[in-house]
Amino acid sequence: MGRRRKDPGSRRAISRRGFLTTVSTAPIAGAAIGRAHETPAPVPAAEAHEPVNVVLRINGRSFKLQVEPRDTLLTALREKLGMTGTKPGCERGECGACTVLIDGNPRYACLTLALEAAGHEITTVEGLMNGEQLGPVQKAFVEDDAMQCGYCTPGQVMAAEGLLRANPNPSLEEIRLGMSGNLCRCGAYDHIFKAVQRAAQARRTGGMS
Ligand code: FES
Ligand code: FES
Questions:
Q1: Using a 6 Å cutoff on CB, does residue 59 contact ligand 2?
Q2: In a domain, 109, yes or no
Q3: Which is the closest atom of ligand 2 to the Cα of 150?
Q4: Residues 8-36 pLDDT 10s
Q5: b/e map 175-195, b = 16+ CB within 10 Å
Q6: pLDDT tens-digit map of 49-99
Q7: Domain that holds residue 86
Q8: Residues with C-beta less than 6 Å from any ligand 1 atom
Q9: What is the number of the ligand 1 atom nearest to the C-alpha of 181?
């Protein structure tokens, strides 16, 4: 599911595996050529655009919808369910604008297929609201003026929420590290980090749930 790390050795491992596969299947390929007159039964190709029924658990509710196997969770949220709080940015796992929680952990919705997310608890920025009231992290972002244009803010809030669920008392360095998958083109980082500290402290002192 969609999050951030690339294995620097994977390219080499794949090419070596590909080489071994080619070598080890060569005799099989030869045998297949020898039986070329035996026409295999046609296998229907899976169509990536054929809709599939799926149930997604989002913000504590179940939603039945149809998605294409190639649809990302970001597409499903915004275009199928109208949950536009989750923002599209780069749509290739670089900016963090699309961050949601899956089973409590921050994940990029643009790199997660909707079908992959089935059976998991998804939380979006809408799910942090308490009725009409802002949730604690959202409130801290407002109080610390942790935004300029605001486009990155839903993703930043979700990353902060995930960080504080895993680590209720992070150091500044841990906050920097925990928020490092979320970019802010306006450069509001100082205020964002202060907001995360404020939300953490408020949680510890019982000022926020
Ligand atoms: S839109 Fe998903 S990481 Fe940029
Ligand atoms: S507030 Fe503008 S991109 Fe972060």
A1: no
A2: yes
A3: 1
A4: 344 444 443 443 333 333 333 333 333 44
A5: beebbebbbbeeebeebbbbb
A6: 789 999 999 999 999 999 999 999 999 999 999 999 999 999 999 999 999
A7: 48-128
A8: 88-91, 93-98, 108, 110
A9: 3
